[in-house]
Amino acid sequence: MDAKVLIESFAEFARSKNVDRPTMIRILEDVFRAMIRKKFETDENFDVTINADQGDLEIFRIREIVDDNSEDIWDFDKISLTDARKIEPDFEIGEEVYEKIELEEFGRRAVQMARQTLIQRIKDLEKDILYNKYEEQVGEIISAEVYQILSREILLIDSEGNELVLPKGEQIPKDRFRKGDTVKAIVHRVDMINGNPKVILSRTSPVFLERLFENEVPEVYDGLITIIKIVREPGERAKVAVESYDDRIDPVGACVGMKGSRIHAVVRELQNENIDVINYTENLELYVSRALSPAKVSSISVNADTKRISVFLKPDQVSLAIGKGGHNIKLASRLVGYEIDVFRELSEYEEEDVVLEEFSDEIEEWIIDELKKTGLDTAKSVLALTKEDLIRRTELEEETIDEIFRILRTEFEQ
């Protein structure tokens, strides 16, 4: 293989990988200089000129002519007068000899090795380009096409044919994709595994929801509305606290849009995830009240030392505050940064009721806490439910629930 064929084949491969010309030339020179060092031990006195467009390569060895008896004759950049005159008969001491080295002089094996090295260098460069490209896009939305569905992840390809990964844990539980589908997600992170970049996408990150709002709500994109915090139970419910520094803009109304037109597009992308947009305030009690929407709060008691908040609601509001699967109260707690305990307001009839703490000598404290987490703070509120309701709403075992019912019923039978 001559220099022209080698360089032209490499240049064509490099261009197919979108490698710019200066980088291509630099790689070629690096590889040829490595060949020189292997043969001559140094490349300091060599001049390498490459024209990738024409496939031209010129390598010159530059040496200073010294007397045959000089002590410097063995230096790498020196040549004896006798040897120099074998190249040109009229050379004199002190002149420089430019000796052209043909590629064939390195041997067929070295040239083949150079070809493999060039291809590998481009592939390494391609990996670096891919890593840097997506490292800069972490937190941004991209679209990619599904090309393989595995048990633990979905493999996608971008517009340039690069492989991206959407792990099971980063998918919304209701996501169902088929080969060829276009998927929106954010670039979650880029890992380098054994020298290969692995681009991880996510659809469950709060940042994904934030970027969707930026796409659908111009005021958010322009910075007129600020998203303070987002908490999510992917595919189920999300709460978004927003704030506007312009009194003329209603941040909640702007995010929702006329008849829900703006938020509907976001909800649809998130597989009908319920999204509560909340007006942020530094008034903690008001913030908690808004965070527990759609429930209406009667009163609130804050314990700043323990970072707990006791919320009192009418009986018909308790289930709304807790929400399906406890999602509403969990998200509200994460949004405000306090643990929220829900309590029912007692009516005149219920004043005859007994709070669960009164049974602490018969029912273990952790069981009482588990019941209170679901808004059950009195004996009658527990007895008003069936065993199946309690199994579904708590993590208590059936035998434990039977014992609770027995203890509470005994109280009222007496």
From TrEMBL:
Stretches of the chain forming a coiled coil according to its record: none
Domain Transcription factor NusA first KH: residue ranges: 203-280
Top-level division of the source organism's lineage: Bacteria
All copies of domain Transcription factor NusA N-terminal, residue ranges: 6-128
Database matches in SUPFAM superfamilies: Nucleic acid-binding proteins, Prokaryotic type KH domain (KH-domain type II), Rad51 N-terminal domain-like, Transcription factor NusA, N-terminal domain
Keyword terms: Cytoplasm, RNA-binding, Transcription, Transcription antitermination, Transcription regulation, Transcription termination
The keyword ATP-binding belongs to this UniProt entry's keyword annotation: no
Residues covered by the NusA-like second KH domain: 285-345
One Pfam match: KH_NusA_2nd
The keyword Transcription belongs to this UniProt entry's keyword annotation: yes
Localization per Swiss-Prot or TrEMBL: Cytoplasm
Role summary: Participates in both transcription termination and antitermination.
Family that this chain belongs to: Belongs to the NusA family.
Database matches in HAMAP family: NusA_B
Quaternary context: Monomer. Binds directly to the core enzyme of the DNA-dependent RNA polymerase and to nascent RNA.
Entry protein name: Transcription termination/antitermination protein NusA
Source species: Algoriphagus confluentis
